[in-house]
Amino acid sequence: TFSNSKNYAQQYLAERGYDPFDGSIGRGDVEDEEPPRPMNVYQLLKSRHTSESVDEPMIHDGQATEGYEFEWMTTPWSECSQTCGANGGGYKLRSAHCMLRMSNSSRTVDNSFCEDAGLPVPETVDKCGNIDCPRWVTADWSGCQQSKCFSWHTALQRRDVYCQFDGERSDEKVCEDQEKPVTKQECYNELCKGVWRVEPWSDCNAACEGQGIKYRILQCVWYGTKKPAGNACRELPRPAVMKVCKGPPCISNRE
């Protein structure tokens, strides 16, 4: 009967140094006159039943003799060996074990049992983490001649700097482990020199035939932009901002 065949399979395994119910079916180290060949449960039972009256069990896609089933069990994937890096060197690992499942229990068996049953071996190595690492991307510097003057012959040019991760612009916190490139620097600009800009003279404030003073506004500006330049003209001769003037002729009232 099938139960007797099952008992025979267990006895056969025990005599050769391993037990299908002890957690792992191994090959055993017992030497026979003829080197043992890998056998699964179906083969053990078939060796006992050679009569044509016994239906030949089928092993296909993990199916074995009635009450038995082989299947692969895998462990969870390990962490990736790298979080990023486009060099293709990232990988993760897992283990695959063949399981013999019965009606109310299961045991780990040699992987060859699942292979003999025609079950594809699961992948145990997979690529991962092969994306570009976060990095700072810098744009071109602005032209120095068009940049804002900073001091004599010195302008302050700027550039855009942003964090990029996996091909997209990201929050700067993603790149905080790397030093951020500078976004501004000084450059030589010959147009950055101060010149005096003077406004027209005001009217003389003297009465007729009298003596008075007139004024004009004076401002230091950058030569290139004509924008206020602070004290950039301090080394230049300072034009006069007021001078003495004579009032207009008096008009007499004659009858």
UniProtKB/TrEMBL annotation:
It is found in: Secreted. It comes from Anopheles melas. The keyword Secreted applies. This is Uncharacterized protein. The keyword Ribosomal protein does not apply. InterPro entries: ADAMTS_ADAMTS-like, TSP1_rpt, TSP1_rpt_sf. Signal peptide: none annotated. It comes from the Eukaryota.
